[in-house]
Amino acid sequence: MEQPVRSSFDPFLTAIIANRIDSIIREMTNAMLRSARSAVINSARDFSCSIVTSDNRLLASAEGLPIHIFGSDLLTLAMQKFHGHDLREGDCYLHNDPYNGNSHPADHAFLVPVFIDGEHMFTAVAKAHQADIGNALPTTYMAGARDQYAEGALIFPAVRVQRDYKMNEDIVRMCRARIRVPNQWYGDFLAGIGSARIAERRLKELCGKYGKEQIRAFLNDWLDYSEELMVKALQQMPRTRLSNSGRHDALPGLLPDGVPLRVSLEIDPEAAMIEIDLTDNVDSLPVGLNLSLASASAAAVAGVFNSMSIRVPRNDGSFRRIRLRFREGSILGKPRFPHSCSVSTTNIADRVVNVVQSAFARVSAEWGLAEGGVGVGLGFAVVSGDDHRYGGASYVNQICIGSAGGPGSPSADGWPTYSIPVVAGLMYRDSIEIDELKHPFEVEYCRLKSGTGGAGEFRGGPALEMSITPKDSPIEFIWNCDGLETAPKGVRGGRDGITSQHWLVSADGAAEELPSMVVRTLQEGERLLGWHTSGGGYGNPLARDVELVRKDVLEGYETIERARDLYGVVFTGSIANDSLAVDEIGTALMRGIG
Amino acid sequence: MSYVISIDTGGTFTDVVIRGPDGKPAIGKALTTHERVFSGMREAVAAAAAEKKMTLDELLANTELLVYGTTRATNAIVTKRVAKTAFVTTAGFPDTLVLREAGKFDPHDFRTPYPDPYIPRRCTFEIVERMSSEGTVSVPFDEAQARRSVAQIVERGFEAVAVCFLWSVANGAHELAFARLLDEMAPGTPYTLSHQLIPIVREYRRASATAIDASLKPLMQEHFRQLETDLRGAGYKGEILVSITSGGCTNIEAVVAKPIYTIGSGPAMAPISSRAYAKQESYGDNVIVCDAGGTTFDVGLVRDGRLTFTRDTWLGPHYVGDLMAISAVDMRSVGAGGGSIAWIDEGGLMHVGPQSAGSEPGPACYGRGGELPTVSDAAAVLGYFDPSFFLGGRMTLDVAAARRAIETVSSKIGLGAEECAYRILTLASELMIRAIGDITINEGLNPRESSIVAGGGAAGLNIMLIAKELGCNRVILPKTASALSAAGMQYANIVSEEAASLVTSTQAFNFEGVHAVLCRLKAKLDAFAIQLDQSVNHRIEFITEARYAGQIWELDTPVPASGLETLADVEALKEEFHRVHERLFAVRDEGSPVEFINWKARLSIPLGSDPASSPEVEICSADPEFCAGLAKRDCFFGGASPVATPILKPRDMFPGLRIQGPAIIEEPTTTLVVYPGMSATISGAGNYLLEI
Is B21 on the interface with A (CB under 8 A)? Predict the structure, then answer.
């Protein structure tokens, strides 16, 4: 292979400019992270920055949340559709409409078209999950919403909020009049616009330095290069056609049977194409769980990228090799208006990620993952109320101290900081102290639960359990947790993770088990407690390295009993005096029988 | 009695700088001797003394101050030789060190194992107690249970104890209660209390710093005791100070109490010398500091004449390493240097690093069996090194091997070896430019309006390319470039920092509370200054960590010198915060209240004097006759054909000489490449001033 790769492709300059583009995204990210107001953005990092070309190809998205990123092009497409001839320098558009390419209404995207010498060349996209969007209830996740009207959010289908770099104050007033804790919203709004404007400035500098023609050549080269890597990866896969299924739990009173999910996966190594067919799914439903086109696409594509063993840039180039199929009117990707997509970025989207990545695990031992833990329970509750400590000031915020366990993979255990499949471990955890400073509650414990990770050659991440109690003032807690009935699945002989459970314990100690959808106001003396799901295991637990099993027991991730019963490892000595050792013969016997 | 000796003991080399009555520095170098650090130190000091025509004994007898910096703590952590440390925390929260603050870089990477916590879970002890965020007792301290835990700590042979309870910053009583039990039941076992070491809100940050600090105590106490004994044994009678990561130095007693501050203390000195050199050459007080070694490139800033600080220094990778969390000089390190390997990926794109050939086998040109093409190989192929006089003649380079290595890449992209080599060097520069970009963006500094001070053995290779890309046309390569850190200690102040947590806001400013906190901090620092016999000379500045209401991340904001006694003072502080926020994020939110979370007091006592201004010299361009007399070597600067390039040695040069590129300047410890169209002038002080 001692020949030049592509005649016009400059391997050096392409690398340099790609690096510069990446730096621009990092600068956008830094600005958003550090200047935003709500914890969900500035602490939990529930936002993403990307750059899209003027012909709506996703160019770059360093470190962005997968669920936000695959779909930036749909946002800019809508902007062009609505404003095509009237786009100009100095504009900024606010977009959160799930029926025009956005993930869900709580994600406010700021789109700044970037003009070079009067020509539209890029659109900078900064997208952030808002703490509040004016829904009927003080939460951005309206699982029970019959339709988009019942959600109550203000919808902005690529609405112009700035022209000639000046704010349209009408829009600001509309939002201030409708969104809870308007100052917090406004701070985030400024941070989002500021982030996109930084990209505008830097992209202009970049084009000034290299010239438009050079940059145009780069755009094609970079996307072709990314496609080339994807082709090489797919050519190594076996020809495959299989289907895989999953399920979202029942929602009491709304979806008594839950939502069954089906995905067909076809890999054609000669054509270097993957097709993911999501058509064989139920019609859209009168609840908030429907997946917008952006969310369904993002979840499926994330499942593919999670499954690959080599790194490929995430952009339009690599996406060309993935074909997605949706059905008009289906809950996955093409719900019928006005069905609600309020909870479109988590619950069912998480299950789609899982079904896709666990389908790949069936293809070969090189690819795919177990199912990751699901469910946004107590540790991700949206809390609201008035804080007696600060003169009764109102607050509404999503806390982020929970995490489901990550999936086992072909070479590593699931991470305890996984969060949920769509987040993939990217989000930050809140500091418990900061959360207690900002909200009038006390966390009574927060710890990993022993013996919970789905067993496997590489086990799932353990479940995280916690307990929270209000201090003086009542607090409303809202969450919609999946994973109470349907555990994250293990693959290739790995065991399933554990399901999630929550209780409300009253002042007299009586415990009431809570359903998946919770809207409860807690008084002083009451407490909420429970745990998130753990991750599924990958591969046969009897094949797990005995030293890893020993370490798990020493560290308290596993119990001696489970080590014996699930992993076939027997010990001598004791943990207490540091003498725990593997009983080689006993283990061989156990594993031989097992 | 007027010499100052500064010593930077790195992982490989010990660098020494001495400065005497004439103010002119001399450098000494030796290999670091890890088993007994004094041996290498003695050799390096003797070498520097020889430069000044003195013996070691003469120098020591005439020295009044010795400043010592060490990577001992960092090495102990990297090689996992810290003390067996118990982590003591609030019952119910055993996983603070495991979970960290979450986050990772690549959302699709599920194949990297989750990193172990700094202290294993099995060494974690949960104590029944709890303070509230208001500093009241939620769960009383269970002394009987705590006693059982201490008994176990003793029985299991722990060598150090890190104590971090939730909300100990609001009320440290429970941590103190635990400390009393340790004193009673495990006397002599070193421990660290989180509310004393690092009184900031955010339990992971406090716990991580506390764990790191405690784990270093036995080792560092022993290290400094040994060093002091050895120095005194050698007849040294002057003062001994230790450089710390707060960007200054302090006495042994203080550093033994908080050894975490020695981590990164070497790099923290580079901005100090850089500031001094920029001042010496009248290059302004905004400086980008670049320190290029064999495997890493460190970058830092001086802004408005001040060092910049961060609490976000990670040991190991961001997110999954261990956070230092103390306020440290912001020096960032990227893995890019002479050993970085160039390669072409499956899609045909060129990369440099992050893999490195290290020093074994090292670059192909070292002739030790390395076959992969590195940045040093690229420089060798370009003709930038004298193959027979590499590292001052300590090594002979195998240029043929370098060429063979480079050809493995150049053949894949259809270029000649020299053209490819130039691109490799440029791509390596790109990594460094990115690192500079990240830190200047973070601080809102415009590289075009700043100066660069470059140091480290490898800086001269590409610093002019970097400066050109950044649009920065004031660049200094100091005479002491190869020992930027040791030189920094020559100009360092004695510093000490105390901090306290007190949350208040511009809406209802807690005058009384803040006054009390600031007084308390000042009293502690005053006491420290008195103990050092420096009560007259010291300056204390106050800084608050502030944010807009609802933000999470605080920004360091200087407290007005007038203090905070009146509403007008608070207004001034608020304006200062707006200014800082606007500088960093281009946004100011006039309508928003400002919250103050932590308060810091920083003591600083000047020790030595900055170098004198560079004497005016007449600039004289090297004339043709001069150039004709110089040796020449074929070098390449991007094209396929060679350029006969003059080679200059120190003996060829004098202050005021202006050398037009292309030219190569070969100093004993560094090589400076002056690219075509650029030039270098030797200043009156002997520094190289580079013009792009």
Answer: no
